[in-house]
Amino acid sequence: MPKSAKTARALLALGRAAGARQVTLCADQYQALGREADIQKGICELLELMQIPFSVTDASRSFGPDGKPRRGKVRKSWPDLIGCLPGGRMLAVEVKTATGGFQPGQEEMLERLGKQGALVIVARSIDDVRTALEGSL
């Protein structure tokens, strides 16, 4: 676990133990506690602002009328966000929390996409995407 995530969790625990209603965290500490969905939402807002067309891959599990899990329609290990950069280059973003790991096959898929020319970003924060895009646009 990254140091900022440990520090943030420790500060929250201390604050709660002391009965604090509010605990102040720096940006890095707050982001370390972020959920993947929150990070992804911020990245989507950034891509909108930058006018980069994109789509969110919905790999959530679905169930049929009989209550049994249905086979997903998204290819296994496909990145969370896919976009099209100026000039037609593919953008592939895999969103992870500060402590999140890869599912089987995800790293291999990202490597394959990168070898085919896609800009591949493993984003643990919105800044990861901003920095990568600034360096490639």
Give a description of the structure.
This protein starts with a helix and ends with a helix. The model has no long low-confidence stretch (mean pLDDT 83). It has helices at 3-17, 27-32, 36-49, 106-115, 126-134, and strands at 54-56, 81-84, 90-95, 119-123. Helix content is 39%, strand content 13%. It has 137 residues and is an alpha+beta fold. It folds into 2 domains: 1-33, no CATH class; 35-134, Trna Endonuclease, Chain: A, domain 1 (3-Layer(aba) Sandwich).
Task: List strands and helices in order, with pairings.
Blueprint lengths: L2 H15 L9 H6 L3 H14 L4 E3 L24 E4 L5 E6 L10 H10 L3 E5 L2 H9 L3
Parallel strand pairs: 3-4
Antiparallel strand pairs: 1-2, 2-3
> What proportion of the residues form beta strands (DSSP E)?
5-15%
Q: Name the poorly predicted regions.
A: none
Order of helices and strands: HHHEEEHEH
Q: How much helical structure, as a percent, in the residues?
A: 25-40%
Shape: globular
In short:
Helix content is 39%, strand content 13%. The chain is of the alpha+beta class and 137 residues long.
